[in-house]
Amino acid sequence: MINFCIDIPICGGKLISNEYRYKKCKACKYENEEDVLQSLNA
Questions:
Q1: Structural element, H or E, at residue 23
Q2: Backbone angles phi and psi of 25, in degrees to 5
Q3: Alpha helices in 1-42 (DSSP H)
Q4: Distance of CA 19 to CAs 16, 31, 34, 42, Å?
């Protein structure tokens, strides 16, 4: 499995793993599934 660095498009903050396949931003508390965040960055 390849790990990708995902930046959140809303505030530019870094994400941390919250649950299985879910990421949460430390700065703005935005949370979503990994695949959704990757599609927003595309």
A1: strand 22-25
A2: -85, 130
A3: 34-41
A4: 9, 10, 10, 23
Q: How far apart are CA 26 and CA 13, in angstroms?
A: 7
CA torsion sign, 9 to 14 to 18 to 22? Answer: positive
pTM of the model: 0.61
Tell me the domain boundaries of the chain.
Answer: 1-42
pLDDT, tens only, 15-40: 888 878 888 888 888 888 888 877 77
Beta bridge partners of 25: 15
CB 26 within 8 A of CB 10: no
